[in-house]
């Protein structure tokens, strides 16, 4: 059956509403502002007939590969969230952002496994693995994907879940946008409404000792407690100029047991210059969105690595900020059949906001593994996966997209 794209939905470079006239440095062969599943299906089939690859954009966050010469399908108009509070499930349309889901879930004392930044789109985050403040107690965003409805490379509408197309369901939980265009996700919610969250600041002279403690003892912290030490080149405190250690933390466990968890934080930084920890709604802990210039994973925080990190923010030509995380918890204990999110056995990471020289300085002791959501170079996609998962992903790709029309992304080529 032929599914022509509606003239009102598609633009070309000669059309005034085409993205190439928006000031953005993109020139897709055609662009569709999808408002329905039918629009998406028709656009995919039109792309196939014209021999065009397909680029998908929902919120635009994390777009790394130019859609030049492609059929650009935007799903940003397809928004909306429906809650099933009894099942703790949210049904999310492809243009929704985490802020939409957080607001809907909060009404029922629930929270999604969202990222640190509420403006991020749900689909790209989830398909890329998805890591945020609730990952340690509840797993990655991909681990909490119950089902997805997708338009495939053939223009067909399918549902991927544990009992339907299990190979596709496995692949999309960490394999990125390689297998289809999402039209709806069902995601699991957590019984979290209130958390203890904030930031404690300490003098940069305390940073090396604090990071040594973190490297030695982070695995002993309860999984409900996520701690993120940050080295900041510029202090946000008016009473303290220059570099500073800023330790962000979120406790999502029983509030009556919080004192035990926070005793570790006190041991780590001592008496802070200032802290703003308080009981907050989950919606109140978001941080501004940034794209790191680098992201490295480590099996340990060696003394040499810590010294390099601290020196890099003290140096006037160094980085702006480094954020350390210890994962573990549910991220390191996936359920049987979990998706291909890689490197679950690697406990530490550093998110790097700094130039290439800072990234290079921190690379020698890194594992070389990457997390797809933070992978700035799409030619390095292979590094986000374990070897056997990579080959399995390529086999799934061969079944569902043998012509690789969904390649304007962190691409996984078909086997």
Task: Summarize the structure in short.
By secondary structure, the protein is α+β, with helices and mostly antiparallel strands. Helices cover 23% and strands 23% of the residues.
Description:
The protein has 415 residues and is of the alpha+beta class. The protein is built from ten helices and 18 strands. Strands 11, 12, 13, 14, 15, 16, 17 and 18 form an eight-stranded antiparallel β-sheet that branches. Strands 5, 6, 7, 8, 9 and 10 form a six-stranded antiparallel β-sheet that branches. A four-stranded mixed β-sheet has the order 1-2-4-3, covered by helices on one side. A hairpin with a 5-residue loop joins strand 8 (145-151) and strand 9 (157-161). Helix 6 packs across helix 7 (258-269) and helix 6 (207-217) packs antiparallel against helix 8. The two termini are 29 Å apart. The model is unreliable at 1-8 (pLDDT under 50).
Structure characteristics:
Vanillyl-alcohol Oxidase, Chain A, domain 3, single chain, Uridine Diphospho-n-acetylenolpyruvylglucosamine Reductase, domain 3, Uridine Diphospho-n-acetylenolpyruvylglucosamine Reductase, domain 2
List low-confidence stretches: 1-8
The outline comes out as globular
Mean pLDDT: 91
Structural class: alpha+beta
- Percent strand equals 15-25%
Radius of gyration: 22 Å
Largest sheet: 8 strands, antiparallel
User: What is the ordering of alpha helices and beta strands?
Assistant: EEHEEEEHEHHEEHEEHEEHEEEHEEHH
Please provide the count of β strands: 18
Number of helices: 10
* Cα end-to-end separation: 29 Å
- Helix share, percent: 10-25%
CATH fold title of the largest domain? Vanillyl-alcohol Oxidase, Chain A, domain 3
What's the CATH architecture name of the largest domain? 3-Layer(aba) Sandwich
